[in-house]
Design a protein that fits this description.
about 150 residues; three-stranded parallel beta sheet; globular; alpha/beta; single chain; about 30% helix; two-stranded antiparallel ribbon
Length: about 150
C-alpha cells in the first residue's frame, strides 16, 4: 500500500498481453504505433480502473499519448482514451489531472526526432510551429471541461 504520497502518477501508452510463457507478441494484423506499441486507446481507462483498486489516493495521469505520423489516428486515440477517463470519473474514481505527451514533436532518447508524439508540429529547420488537429481537439475538450465545472 502506498502511504504518505499526495497522488499516484500513472503513465500509459499501450496494452501488453501476457500468457503462461510471458509476453504475447501481437499478430501481424495488429496496428502498432511508431514506437512499436499496440495502438489501444482503451488501455488508459482499463489501467485507471486496475490501479484504483490498489491505491487509496488520487490518480493523476502524468503521461499519455501516441507516436504516429497520422494525426487522424492521434485524434481518434485521444477521443477514445478520454471516453475511458470520463467513464472512470462518472464511476467515482478520484482522478485529479491529465497530462498529454507531448505538446511538441520532441527528441525521444533512443529515436531522436523520428517519433511524432506532439500536438504541435515543429519544423526543425525554421523552428516554425503548427498546431495539429489533435492539439485543437484536446484544447476544445479542456475548454469544455473547464466551462462545465
Amino acid at each position: 500500500m502506498i502511504t504518505g504520497d499526495d497522488f499516484f502518477g500513472l503513465q500509459n501508452y499501450t496494452r501488453e498481453t501476457y500468457g503462461p510463457e510471458g509476453q504475447v507478441k501481437p499478430d501481424e494484423a495488429t496496428e502498432l504505433t511508431q514506437m512499436g506499441y499496440v495502438y489501444c486507446p482503451e488501455a488508459l481507462g482499463k489501467v485507471i480502473r486496475k490501479v484504483s483498486q490498489s491505491v487509496q489516493i488520487p490518480i493523476m495521469i502524468t503521461e499519455h499519448g501516441v507516436a504516429t505520423v497520422d494525426d487522424k489516428r492521434r485524434v481518434e486515440f485521444i477521443r477514445r482514451s478520454l471516453e475511458g477517463v470520463q467513464s472512470c470519473l462518472k464511476d467515482g474514481i478520484d482522478l485529479i489531472g491529465y497530462l498529454h505527451w507531448s505538446t511538441f514533436d520532441n527528441f525521444e532518447w533512443n529515436s531522436g526526432y523520428s517519433m511524432q508524439f506532439g500536438l504541435i508540429e515543429v519544423d526543425r529547420t525554421t523552428q516554425e510551429r503548427k498546431v495539429k488537429e489533435s492539439g485543437r481537439l484536446l484544447g476544445q475538450i479542456a475548454q469544455n471541461s473547464l466551462v462545465a465545472r
